[in-house]
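SAMPLE LOG
Freezer: B-3
Tube label: C17
Construct: single chain, 527 aa
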Amino acid sequence: MEKRALAAIVLSISILFLYQYLYVNPKIKEATKNAAIDNHTKAAAIAPTKAETSTPSATSAPKPSTEPSAATAQDIPTAAAEASTVIVDTQLYTAMISTSGGVITSFKLKDYKDKDGKEVYLIKNAKIPPLASGDTTDFKFMKAEFKTTSGNLTITGQETRQLTFTFDHNGIHVKRTYTLSGDSYKIGLKDEVSGIDDYYITTGSDFSSEGHDSYGAHNGPVILKDMERIELDTEKKLDGIKLYDGNIKWIAQENKYFFDALVPLTQTKGAQMWNITEKSIIGAIKTGSGTNEFMFYAGPKKYEVLKSVNASLEHIVDFGFFSIIARPIFWMLMFINKYVGNFGWSIILLTIVIRIPFIPLINKGQSSMKKLQKIQPMMTEIREKYKKDPQRMQKELMELYKKHKVNPMGGCLPMLVQIPVFFALYKVLLVAIELRGAPFMFWVTDLSAKDPFYVLPIIMGGTMFLQQKMTPTTMDPMQNKIMMFMPIIFTFMFLSFPAGLVLYWLVSNVLSIVQQMYINKKADTTA
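STRUCTURE (predicted):
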């Protein structure tokens, strides 16, 4: 039974290992290769073909055109070569909004730096900037020259200001009003449109200057439909235009720590996704004439802040398959850190708190393994005696377990129960922006990144070796020798894991050692 438990742990960690080296690392290399960003790139016009909204499916619609039709060019005057720009400066971000389409062309965060110490841009080099809009044949509004009477804005504190852009031509009227606050990443957007049946409003593409930091998490477009999170893989080209109807909560572009999202506040006609390049997918919400209201949100993935917005934006933080466990773990971590003020020590305390419910189960399991070790000679004798009669062997072993009140599964269950907790905590430490750049002490300056000197993984491997030596075993000498390689294997696996996760595993090992010392001493006393 001990072998089954170890096999389960090996399998679980191997999954993480393979994920890291076969999926994550190639993503890092690819993203890093494409991380160079030009400072001033003109947004290119894209024309999605007209399609009726239906259930989610890939259609056979033609690829979006990259040039406007002749009729389009006549209907909507092209923006001037040098459009004017309104700069909006708040305590959280600096945004640039162009009169060419009345769209946001730059969005720079003030409180965050990338790994190179440079400013984090959520919008900078998009082929279509977020909030570009148009009709079913072309993004006319993006290329059209809007008018505004506003100059640059500086918004402080809780102050709220409005910025209006207008466009009138050949019976088409658009009035776009932004509502901006000095202390929020939330931007209100109201379009008053007449003279056109349908138009799209987009999330943009080529999101964020920090895309190379998205390893281990989804990077690209995502949509929340009927509370179902649907991710699109930018590595796989879509077959035509993918259409969605139903209750569209929001569409977004994301990386591990940041996102921008468009939340419809009034009725829409669905959403769609399509490729504008081989590895670039854009999302858009379809709507029509009348008053259309949206909320645009661009900023960090802070779970509690997003939840307070009350627009289901907290679902942009993806805690993975074990989210039902990960969310309480995340809440406990944030609660502890509120008083401790250091995420390293908070992880240590969280490990102790998580360990408490398992103490009786682990004690029972370790006691069972101690008893199994004592009856090991008798087990060996039975296996040798009945090696040609497996059924009789199993019956005799069960009688032996019953006689000595030993549960052969006792040592296996505690380890198996902790595996979901490990995966849940792994995801929390991987995606929580609160840990991004969070220092512990000495050389560990970022708990979300690997230990730069590999000290924690090496110490963790040492504690695992010590724990293995102390733990009772029912394996034969050859199996024991093989298992002695496990601490070495695990150490290499953990070299590239986030330092916070290694810290958790290290502390968990230390607690296991202390607990095993207690069990061994108790067993020796009662022997």
